[in-house]
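STRUCTURE REQUEST FORM
Protein name: NADH-quinone oxidoreductase subunit H
Source organism: Fimbriiglobus ruber
Requested output: C-alpha cells
Priority: standard
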Amino acid sequence: MPEFNLLYTGLLIAGVIAFTQGFVAYLILAERKVAAWVQDRLGPNRVGPFGLLQPIADGGKLFLKEEVIPSHVDKIFFVLAPIVAFSTALLALAVVPVGTTVAPPGPQETLAAFNETQAEYASHFSMVIVPGLDIGILYSFAIGSLAVYGVILAGWSANNKYSLLGSLRSSAQIISYEIPLGMSVVGVLLFAGSMNLETIIAWQAKHGWNLFYQPLAFLLFMTSVYAECNRLPFDLPEAEQELVGGYHTEYSSSMKLGLMLMAEYIHMITTSFLMSILFWGGWSLFGVEDLVTDPIGSAVLKTAILGGKMTAFVGLYLLVRWTIPRFRFDQLMTLAWKVMMPLALLHLVAALIVRQFNLPLVSLTGMSLALFVGAGFIAARSGGPNNLPRRPAKHAVRETVGV
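Status: completed
Returned output:
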C-alpha cells in the first residue's frame, strides 16, 4: 500500500467528483441528442450554441424548484432513498482507476527486497483514489450492489402501487444478474492472480487483452451491467408505459429525482470504466502507450486512452437504448437463470481447465466461442428460451368453448 498523501488524495477526490458531475450533465445532453437523431428531430438546440448550455439550465432548474414531499409517503425513507442511491454510486468509484496506474509489487523472497519494491512502488503516482487495494473489484461490486437499497426504499416509502412494483422488479433483477456478473470475472481473476484492478491492467499490458481470450465472459459481463444499471432493454423497474415511472413515480422534478437519475448515470460511468479495465486492457493500446517516454506525457496519454475507451462504452449505452426494445419480465428472468448462469458456469470450468493444465491462452478463446455457438444452436433448435407464455391456438379455444 503506498504512503497516504492527504493533498494528492484530496485533489484526486475533488477532481473525480467534479469530472463525474460535469460528465453526467453532458451525458444527459448527449443522450437527448442521440434520441433526437434516432427519431429524426432536432433535439435541444436553443440554450447556447448547439444547445451546449442546456445542462447548466437544467441543473439550475433542479436547484430552484420547490421540494415537494407528498403527504402519504414515509418522509424519512422517502428523503433517504436518493441519498443512498447517489452516495453508493459515488463510493463505488473509489477503487476504479481513471488514468495511469502502477501495479503493486508481489511477494518477495527477502524482507530487504520487499522493502525495496515497496519503496519504489510508493514513489509512483496512480490515478485512483484508493490505490493498491487487494480486494478492489470485490469492493466495487459490494458497494455497487448496495444501490438497490435506494431503489427499494424509494418504492416502499412512496406508498404507491406502481412504485412498489418497480422496486420489487428492481430487487429481483439486480439480485439475479449479480450472479453471472460475478462469475464472468472469475476467469479474469484466475489469470491475473489478483483482485486488484491495477494488477489486472498490468497483466493485460504484458499478455494481451482479456477480450481476446475470454470474449464470452465479456459478453456476459456487459449484459449483466446493463441490467444492473436498469438501462434498456432492462429498464423494467421504471417502465413508463407499464408503471408510470416505477420506483420514482412520486418524486417530482426536483433535486431528489435529480439525485436518483445522477446515480444511474454514475453507474454507467463506473461500469464503463470496469469494462475497459477488465477486458479492454485499461490504459494499454498495443504499445501506443509507450510511444511517449516523458513521465507527464505518458500519464496524460494513458489517461486519454482509458478515457476514450470509457467514453466509447458510454456511447454504446446511449445507442442500445434506442435500438433494442424492452424485455418482458419473464424473458428477463429466463435470460438470467437459464442462459447466462449456465454459460458463466461452463466458461468458468473452461478457464479452470486452461489454468490447471497450463494450456495456451488461445485455447480459452476457442472454448469461449464454442460455448457461444453451442448455446445459440441449442436455442435455435428449441425455438428459443423466451417463447413462453404461448397464446392458445384458435381451434383449441373454439373446441374448449364448444363452438
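Reviewer notes: The radius of gyration is 23 Å. The first helix runs from residue 6 to 38.
Form closed.
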